[in-house]
Amino acid sequence: MPKPTDSTDIPADSTSRSYRERLAPGPGLYLALLLLIPSVMLTVTPLSSVWALPVAIGLYLVIGGSLFALAPTIEVSNGQLIAGSARIAVSLLGDVETLGRDSLRAALGPGLDARSFLLVRGYIHSGVRVSVMDPSDPTPQWILTTRKPEELRAAVRVAQSA
After folding, report:
1. Out of 2, 13, 39, 145, which could bridge 124 as a Cys pair, Cβ 3.0 to 4.6 Å?
2. Is residue 116 in some structural domain?
3. Which residues, including other chains, have CB under 8 Å from residue 62's CB and lie 6 or more apart?
């Protein structure tokens, strides 16, 4: 797991957020989750037919809201790359490689270094591989899924040049 950096690693002139993305599920998953409503209704109906529909809708809203609220974010701000709860100064990062569907699959499969930091969501099929240049960090790279790999790559490069 990447170590937290202290504030001395963050450039003083870089105080704005240049990229932020919440890795929430897309509309398709929420539509598929609608199948939960009849399933729950079938389960609850023998107990109380009056409560079957409200319980099913309530459970759908709780699960759907949880999926959105608990989705991690990726952010480039204040000279740091923040992915979920991990953060690293962009000055410690090397090359940022965008990954399409096939290259992401290869990077997460046979090409994966077990020491890599991963923030991967199976419903997102593109990402980036960011090399870590800090010699004291045992993590050689970060692999992050993102819907906007080119924008994330550009934001990291801009933050590195600042």
Report:
1. 145
2. yes
3. none
Does the predicted model carry a pTM greater than 0.90?
no
The single-letter code of the amino acid at 68 is F
Distance of alpha carbon 153 from alpha carbon 162, whole angstroms = 15
CA atoms within 13 A on the CB side of 119: 27
**Selection from 111, 147, 109 nearest residue 128 by Cα:** 147
In a 10 Å sphere around its CB, with 0-12 CB exposed, 13-18 middle and 19+ buried, how is residue 34 labelled? exposed
CB-CB contact of 162 with 13 (8 Å) = yes
Same structural domain, 92 and 108? yes
Whether 79 maps to a domain, the answer reads: yes
